[in-house]
L-aspartate dehydrogenase (Halomonas stenophila), 264 residues
Amino acid sequence: MTQRLMMIGYGAMGSEVHRLLPLGMELAWVMVPEAHAAATRDRLAGRAEVLTAIEACAERPDLVVECAGQPGLAEHGEAVLRRGLTLAVVATGALADEALFDRLATAAREGGGRMQLLSGAVAGMDGLAAAREGGLDEVTYEACKAPRSWKGSHAAQLIDLDAVSEKTVFFEGDAGEAARLFPANSNVAATIALAGVGMRDTRVQLIVDPATRRNTHRIHAKGRFGEFTIELNGHPLESNPKTSTLAALSVVRACRQALEPVSF
Ligand SMILES: NC(=O)C1=CN([C@@H]2O[C@H](COP(=O)(O)OP(=O)(O)OC[C@H]3O[C@@H](n4cnc5c(N)ncnc54)[C@H](OP(=O)(O)O)[C@@H]3O)[C@@H](O)[C@H]2O)C=CC1
Ligand SMILES: O=C([O-])CC(=O)C(=O)O
């Protein structure tokens, strides 16, 4: 039987996920800010119902995916989880806010919902989380993107993105700071922190490289298990160069997992 999906946010990632939805999963509801509601209704032309709050949904989605960014998770996450729904999340950076994290965890516990943190634009989160069970000594993360991918972010206050002529580190700090300062660009830092050694102990470098067209994520982890380095060179989405294609694909995978009795 076809399962019915609710999507929070319908920007670059949301429309890519919609395009690639697996057979058996149908987009039934899209939740957007009031200001976008009319335009989104026009875009979807009746293919899904457009809402601005979960309370307006009289039925029960089989899965809710958040593709809205940190404000979208903060606005809708609690109500979705209190309804006992499964919420797949890409805006993991919002969870650097401990109060929000606790609110969402409490809502899930009390309402019977489940929050599934997606691997997003990176790989290796399964191995990192397993490695943590034996003790981790060190986890570092570097993100390197083209100037156009950092445009409109806090990076513009730290470096002249139009004038940069060589690969340059413009931010060094912990994962919590990175996720808060770069809400559309550093969710991966928070994902790695949540799978590994936490927000404060995950060291992060953010880099701009005028010679690259990729979104590169490099993770190094060391612990009782041994050591690994993962370098992922992702293609950005054409419609939003901040966002890697793999992040959208991780949402598609979550939809497929919801459909299949056996999943990887
Ligand atoms: N975990 C990961 O690896 C990754 C996570 N991400 C996260 O995914 C988010 C979405 O990416 P992308 O689609 O490319 O970004 P876009 O900016 O293209 O789309 C996000 C959409 O969500 C809307 N939105 C904002 N607030 C709300 C809200 N409260 N309720 C519903 N919708 C809302 C935005 O509206 P408006 O434009 O008005 O703000 C926009 O239309 C990023 O912001 C980032 O936080 C992205 C890449 C990787
Ligand atoms: O998509 C990416 O490359 C990473 C990203 O934007 C994020 O971590 O928020």
